[in-house]
Amino acid sequence: MMPVSFSAWGEPTRYVNRAGRMTMRFFPYELQLRHAFNLARYQRTTTPDVQVEIEYEGVTGYGEASMPPYLGETVDSVVAFLSRLDLSRFSSPFAMEEIHEYMDSLSSGDRAAKAAVDIALHDLSGKLMGQPWHKIWGLDKEKCPCTSFTIGIDTEEVVRQKVDEASPYRVLKVKMGLDNDRETVEIIRSMTDVPICVDVNQGWTDRNQALEMCHWLAERNCLFVEQPMAVDRHDDTAWLRERSPLPLIADEALQRISDVRHIAEAYDGINIKLMKSTGMHEAYKMAVLARALDLKVMLGCMTETSCAVSAAAQLSPLADYADLDGNLLISNDRFSGMKIVDGKITLSDMPGIGVTPLQG
Ligand code: MG
Asked: Does 152 lie in the same domain as 122?
């Protein structure tokens, strides 16, 4: 039995899992979105999230699991997974590969829950080494890409307001997949010439129309198209890739490193997100594999606090494109961390994942 204790001193409930020399604390934390998030398939105003801390020899590492509903994880499933973990099997937080093998032996899913543990372990082990992860990986932080800022599917008034808000950014990400796709792009183009990228979230259903849209977008300074068609339309996507003037990036079609080879048949690149990849350990391997297969690397995120966003940013010198604006979309961040300076991801030399908690 896991030594999990439940203590409620007001909301939210806090959980403590003491295991050998590592102590894990976690609690649910609902992320409040600044704007209702409209995608091709639904709308929402909050995102469920679980915050995790792992303590070892007086040092604390921070992690988190963000669970947008379509990924299938919930606060309950994450709390249940974290409560089952027995970290007393491991003598230190440096046993990253073994801890991942152990977590995968417990379940094949629970990817966000595993990411929360992984991020906290990276933060902790980086702090114990006194180095940030981009340095441990040997990456040059000057090579961090610009991040895009997301414009959701919305009314003309809100789109205009968001484009104004996005003025510090050098790339705009446009959500698509509804009837007014062209309208949204026309509004943006009437306001700014900055490059756009497009995320269709599986919304295009006809491959000929998809191809027509790719050509139309290519004439409007678009960099790439993300997840143009449904995940199960692999062959149609390969057909589109053959003909499209714009690179196609897989997002929903890929989760972990085992998916990358299959994806390479139909897409030009992959969108790596820590909540899909089970964290930084596998995300790094995915970026390296993608490069070896001549795929573009994009680094994305869910709506998250600066904790998980800063963790992903440590990898960003390996990425061609970054969409790390999740922390900017919420009004109740718990950390300060990675900064966007003149549209570019900017990392500090703080150890671990480079975050400082904003509150107790
Ligand atoms: Mg996407």
From this structure: no
* Residue 182 CB coordination number (10 Å): 13
Distance 137 CA to ligand 1 centre (A): 26
- 325 C-alpha to center of ligand 1: Å? 12
User: 269 C-alpha to center of ligand 1: Å?
Assistant: 12
Question: How, if at all, do strands 43-47 and 31-38 pair?
Answer: antiparallel
> Which residue(s) pair with 250 in the sheet?
270
Give the distance (Å) from ligand 1 centre to CA of residue 214: 16
pLDDT value at residue 17: 85
Q: Do 76 and 146 fall into the same domain?
A: no
Domain count, the chain: 2
Q: For residues 308 and 326, what is the distance between their CA atoms, to the nearest angstrom?
A: 9
| Residue 47 shares a structural domain with residue 183 | no
In terms of domains, do 118 and 147 share one?
no
Ligand 1 centroid–CA 8 distance in Å is 36
* pLDDT over 70 at 34, yes or no: yes
239 Cα–ligand 1 center, Å: 20
Do 142 and 126 lie in a common domain? no
Distance 346 CA to ligand 1 centre (A): 22
CA of 202 to the centre of ligand 1 (A): 9
Clarify whether residues 123 and 143 are in a common domain. no
pTM, two decimal places? 0.93
Measured in Å, residue 321 CA sits from the centre of ligand 1 at: 12
The torsion region of residue 146 among left (phi > 0), alpha (psi -120 to 50) and beta comes to beta
What is the pLDDT confidence band of residue 222, given thresholds at 50, 70 and 90? very high
Ligand 1 mean position, distance from CA 213 (Å): 17
The Cα–Cα gap between 31 and 48 comes to 6
Reported as a pLDDT band with limits 50, 70 and 90, residue 356 is very high
Same domain, 139 and 73: no
Map residue 314 onto helix, strand or coil. Answer: coil
Whole domain around residue 105: which residue ranges? 2-130
Half-sphere exposure at residue 20, Cβ-oriented, CA atoms within 13 angstroms: 11
Give the DSSP H or E segment for 159. Answer: helix 156-165
Same domain, residue pair 167 and 296: yes
